[in-house]
From TrEMBL, chain A:
UniProt-listed Gene3D superfamilies: Periplasmic binding protein-like II
Ranges where the record places region Disordered: 1-26
SUPFAM superfamilies: Periplasmic binding protein-like II
Entry protein name: Sugar ABC transporter substrate-binding protein
Automatic annotation (TrEMBL), chain B:
Membrane-crossing residue ranges in chain numbering: 35-54, 115-136, 148-168, 244-268, 303-324
Name of the molecule in the record: ABC transporter permease
Domain ABC transmembrane type-1 span(s) in chain numbering: 111-323
Assigned keywords, A-Z: Cell membrane, Membrane, Transmembrane, Transmembrane helix, Transport
Highest classification ranks of the organism: Bacteria, Bacillati, Actinomycetota, Actinomycetes, Kitasatosporales
BP GO terms, sorted: transmembrane transport
Positions with biased composition (Basic residues): 20-29
PANTHER family registered for this protein in UniProt: BLL4140 PROTEIN (PTHR43227), DIACETYLCHITOBIOSE UPTAKE SYSTEM PERMEASE PROTEIN DASB (PTHR43227:SF8)
Main location: membrane
């Protein structure tokens, strides 16, 4: 009932397009929705979103949930076979790649209607290489440094904003018998986030974006600087990261054996919730500034959203569903039971936001540009290559390994991007 | 006894003078027989063409292309000047092989790890399984129980074995690090993350299972060995060691060949354990994993992955050819 009230409010705002919505084959028809929201909590939230979309558009929404790893692995054949009308996906190069392969349908007409609900960054994240829109975003989450308030208070630590202060804090924590930076990279991808943030802090977002598209060679001096700074951090980073899952690393933060952890809220806060650890004691700060030229202007804030298949059987109704999802009300519906992600729509009112989510919104809003995480910003084959190179670096973070890693990265990038 | 009667039975027909008539008879097949024979031949032939030869040949052909799995293939050569999205489905020549051998850091470690895997199975897992089988076959007390315990891992899927051993190896919470008092964070042994250690850690998991598997095969073999042979050996004054190596072991030749074949196959198709452990990266590279990670995934490098698949095929052909040569030679001499 509450959803209905919200929906009518939403309808008032965009009265012009309601005739198209109500006429035609939308009402009563079925929209198939391929979903990778396979974890119990997200599955539930997604079902609530689908139900309210269904109530709003009068179209039936049928969700086909697939385990998220399988979903991602099979995406190419899925989209070429008989895909659902709509499917869950990620913003960034990952979206642009599938759009460029003509596996997704442009949804510029949807964006004409929902465009007002989003800022320019969200629109840019939904735009393919050809300038058309292909994605309706739902939420994002920042990659930041997490810590426990009580531990900081007890030991008298203060939040560092500069590289020197950060390293000084690390030294103090080490002296206090703590692991300064909890770190787990058994799955390979978590470390990519550290590369991203150091690159954005040292070389800026433009440089990072160009590097991800291989418009700057991996042998560039800037990449060397990133690894040099990382090597400075390594003595304070939890050892043996290549054999530890990020979940186990998060547990050392939970148990106050570690002082800090750099990771996404989608992981750390979600882990605190599922481990039933005091979420109110968790706090974060943006990664400290390294080069004053760039300050703390950028961060990774991966965005998830929805796309329309090229082979959609019911595109009219599917677009109506997307129009609904591109509203603050729809995002609020989704975020009711989600305690880590934050919605992207302007003026979004979510009564259930906790302190972490509120701070996430504020910190993302402060950014001039947000990265999407290396495996979303770069060709996934390149991200895979970097996973193994960065693991080699973590296993042996010495100066002489850096140059050979860069050389290997560049020769693989050449094969992957041009070949 | 059975072998004796069989050889006698088979040696009888040539001795019968009326054999020409008997030999001619099978040529007069009724239409129905011919249809049945044709069907019996055709169905497996079609199945093997469709599911073995077609994919194998396609893989070889695909290995000379650059293709991401979207859209069709064409016969034009790749243009290095074009961006990859436009440069799709083109003929890439031997570029994929060249890249694998020169520019793909995982390739040579994977080949090496596959060979180590094979060596460990041949040198450790198989003899260990044989030892278990011999000891249990001798009927030590509680042999049934040992048999069950050793056989247990064989019944578990490799994926499950990988998960079970995570609890043993985990840095912060694992059994080993806890027992040796190193479960802290600074001095814990990183069993699965250290590229110098993790292959051996995983090989221990694999051996744990493989030895049980080999044990079962050898137990069956040992049971099939005619007990009179052992008795004869004992009468001749052979000690247990001599009896086993000079009488029982040669008598188990068919089982030995089966075990050898299984050992080679199991080591070449090794995949599950490393994939469960860390997706086959950072010291656990195997050719099968590289094929999978290139072909199955979001952005597929089908051509490149196929080239790796062909390399794996060529490596597998070596033991297969040796085995077939061995088998056929034996049949000819018989």
């Amino acid at each position: 009932m509450a959803a209905g009230a919200l929906l009518s409010a939403c309808g008032d705002g965009s009265e012009a397009d309601s005739p198209k919505k109500s006429s035609g084959p939308v009402a009563g028809s079925t929209v198939a929705f391929g979903s990778n929201y396979s974890d119990p909590a997200t599955k539930e939230a997604f079902a609530a979103l689908a139900a309210s979309a269904s109530a709003s558009t009068k179209a039936k929404v049928k969700i086909n949930t697939v385990d998220h790893n399988s979903f991602q692995q099979n995406i190419t054949s899925y989209l070429q076979g008989t895909p659902d009308d709509l499917f869950t996906w990620f913003a960034g190069y990952r979206m642009q790649y599938f759009a460029a392969q003509r596996l997704a349908e442009p949804i510029d007409d949807v964006w004409e209607k929902i465009g007002g609900n989003f800022g320019p960054v969200a629109k840019e994240l939904s735009t393919g290489l050809d300038g058309h829109q292909y994605l309706v975003p739902l939420y994002n989450y920042p990659w930041v440094v997490f810590y426990r308030k009580s531990l900081f208070k007890k030991n008298g630590y203060t939040v560092p904003t500069t590289w020197d202060a950060y390293l000084a804090l690390c030294r103090r924590m080490k002296a206090d018998g703590l692991v300064p930076i909890a770190f787990g990279d058994k799955d390979g991808w978590p470390a990519l986030g550290t590369f991203d943030i150091l690159n954005m802090r040292l070389n800026g977002h433009d440089y990072h974006a160009k590097l991800m598209k291989h418009e700057i060679p991996w042998t560039d001096r800037g990449v060397h600087t990133v690894f040099q700074h990382w090597a400075e951090m390594m003595p304070y980073t939890q050892s043996g990261a290549n054999g530890r899952t990020w979940q186990d690393a998060a547990k050392t933060l939970e148990s106050k054996k570690a002082g800090m952890m750099f990771q996404g809220t989608n992981q750390v806060a979600a882990q605190f919730v599922s481990d039933k650890v005091d979420l109110d004691d968790l706090d974060f700060f943006p990664f400290p500034a390294v080069d004053p030229k760039w300050g703390q202007r950028y961060m990774d804030a991966p965005t998830d959203g929805f796309m329309l298949s090229k082979k959609a059987k019911n595109p009219t109704a599917a677009k109506a569903v997307l129009e609904y999802i591109g509203t603050g009300e729809a995002e609020a519906e989704y975020l009711k039971s989600d305690q880590w992600d934050v919605g992207l729509a302007k003026g979004l009112k979510v009564p259930s936001y906790n302190a972490i989510q509120k701070k996430s919104v504020a910190e993302i809003a402060k950014c001039e540009a947000v990265g999407q995480f290396m495996d979303r910003d770069a060709d996934p084959a390149m991200a895979t290559a970097m996973i193994s190179l960065i693991q080699k670096f973590i296993g042996d973070p010495r100066a002489r390994t850096i140059a050979s890693l860069q050389k290997s990265a560049e020769s693989q990038a050449k094969a992957i991007y041009t070949g | 006894m059975s072998t004796l009667t069989r050889t006698r039975g088979s040696s009888v027909p040539p001795g019968i003078p009326t054999s020409p008539r008997r030999r001619r008879r099978p040529r007069h097949l009724s239409t129905r027989d011919r249809v049945v024979a044709a069907l019996l031949l055709a169905v497996p032939l079609v199945l093997s063409l469709a599911f073995v030869w077609f994919p194998a040949l396609s893989t070889v052909l695909l290995s000379f292309t650059r293709w991401n799995g979207v859209g069709g293939l064409h016969t034009e050569p790749c243009d290095p000047a074009l961006p990859p999205v436009l440069n799709n489905g083109c003929v890439n020549g031997v570029q994929n092989y060249h890249q694998a051998a020169t520019n793909y850091p995982e390739f040579w470690p994977a080949v090496q790890h596959n060979l180590i895997w094979l060596a460990v199975f041949v040198v450790i897992a198989t003899p260990l399984g044989m030892l278990f089988a011999v000891v249990i076959d001798r009927g030590i007390s509680g042999s049934r129980m040992y048999q069950s315990i050793l056989f247990l891992p064989v019944m578990l899927s490799l994926a499950l074995i990988g998960i079970i051993w995570e609890f043993v190896y985990s840095q912060n919470y694992g059994v080993i690090n806890t027992v040796i008092g190193r479960a802290g964070d600074s001095n814990a042994i990183d069993w699965l993350g250290d590229p110098d250690l993790n292959l051996w850690a995983v090989l221990l998991e694999a051996t744990w299972r493989q030895a049980g598997y080999v044990m079962v095969l050898y137990l069956a073999g040992l049971k099939a060995v005619d007990p009179t042979l052992r008795e004869a050996a004992r009468v001749d004054g052979a000690n247990p060691w001599q009896t086993f190596w000079q009488v029982v072991f040669p008598a188990m030749k068919p089982i030995n060949i089966v075990v050898m074949v299984i050992t080679v196959i199991e080591s070449l198709r090794a995949f599950d354990l490393v994939y469960i452990t860390n997706k086959g990266i950072n010291g656990l590279e195997l050719l099968s994993v590289l094929v999978t990670s290139n072909i199955v995934g979001e952005t597929q490098r089908v051509g490149f992955g196929s080239a790796l698949g062909v390399v794996l095929l060529l490596i597998s052909l070596v033991p297969i050819c040796l085995f077939l040569r061995q088998t056929f030679r034996r049949e000819e001499t018989q």
